[in-house]
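Title: Comparing notes on inverse folding

I've been comparing how different people in this forum approach sequence design from structure. To keep things fair, I'm posting one structure and asking everyone to reply with a full sequence. Here's the target:
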């Protein structure tokens, strides 16, 4: 992936090693948070729900929606290390592309901020920690990214060949998937789905969540389509590496690794095959309309 030519974003907030992390988050010990994070990952449940619920039950944290960033974690320009520059470039390219796409539909795109952190920090949705993986918080319209996740992706999940340039496109896919959730939020998809999920049982609510996640995969593909047209930044092997990553973090693959069997009703992100197919759908078409997972008869 040739990312040197991509525009840089000024919406990256770097909290790594700056006091943005926590020894205790929302009153819960870090050990408790790690256990809840791992349990959520293994069961296919968003760990933020478990952590937020634990904070409420313990009377320590209140509602997750009331959480605020840690003191001293205000927005700053990206530090000059290569990872922050890479993240800034990927985020900057999404700003350019989504502004153009929204403008064509007569809408205005407001870009999200992206928070880089180490270990743990606070978000508008509660505690943020590395065990959760990257996530988007609609309450503060920020993407949260512990960049150690990329190393975990290479070494533990074999999401791409460690140290290869193609791994960078896989990392870009992860970031742009989360930006895809921001696009969904601006389009009103996330609020509508959250409202619908309140009246459903767990299995049906999970099915809706799968459609949300697969649509975000497709929107990441739409970004890649238009960014490639503008900057010609994709190199041989990049797309294959991203698809290897999508396959590695499919619910079926993760469940099989963690518990030895697959429970489709517990899927929250979609199978490996589904994630690959929807990303490629967006990459080939470049059209947001091709990402309507909610009307698709078959995912």
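Reply #1:
Here's my take.
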């Amino acid at each position: 992936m040739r990312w040197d030519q991509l525009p840089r974003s000024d919406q990256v907030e770097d909290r790594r090693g700056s006091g943005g992390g926590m020894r205790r988050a929302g009153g819960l010990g870090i050990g408790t948070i790690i256990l809840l994070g791992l349990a959520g990952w293994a069961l296919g449940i968003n760990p933020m729900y478990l952590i937020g619920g634990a904070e409420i039950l313990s009377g320590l944290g209140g509602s997750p929606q009331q959480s605020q960033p840690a003191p001293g974690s205000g927005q700053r320009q990206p530090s000059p290390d290569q990872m922050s520059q890479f993240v800034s470039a990927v985020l900057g390219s999404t700003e350019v592309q989504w502004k153009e796409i929204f403008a064509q539909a007569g809408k205005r795109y407001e870009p999200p901020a992206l928070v880089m952190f180490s270990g743990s920090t606070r978000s508008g949705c509660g505690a943020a920690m590395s065990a959760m993986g990257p996530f988007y918080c609609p309450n503060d319209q920020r993407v949260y990214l512990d960049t150690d996740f990329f190393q975990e992706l290479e070494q533990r999940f074999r999401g791409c060949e460690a140290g290869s340039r193609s791994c960078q496109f896989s990392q870009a896919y992860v970031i742009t998937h989360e930006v895809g959730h921001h696009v969904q939020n601006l389009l009103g998809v996330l609020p509508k789905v959250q409202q619908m999920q309140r009246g459903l049982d767990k299995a049906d609510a999970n099915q809706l969540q799968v459609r949300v996640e697969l649509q975000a995969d497709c929107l990441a593909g739409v970004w890649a389509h238009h960014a490639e047209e503008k900057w010609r930044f994709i190199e041989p092997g990049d797309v294959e590496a991203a698809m290897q990553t999508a396959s590695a973090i499919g619910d079926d693959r993760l469940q099989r690794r963690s518990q030895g069997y697959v429970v489709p009703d517990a899927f929250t992100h979609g199978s490996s095959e589904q994630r690959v197919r929807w990303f490629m759908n967006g990459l080939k078409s470049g059209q947001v309309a091709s990402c309507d997972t909610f009307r698709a008869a078959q995912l």
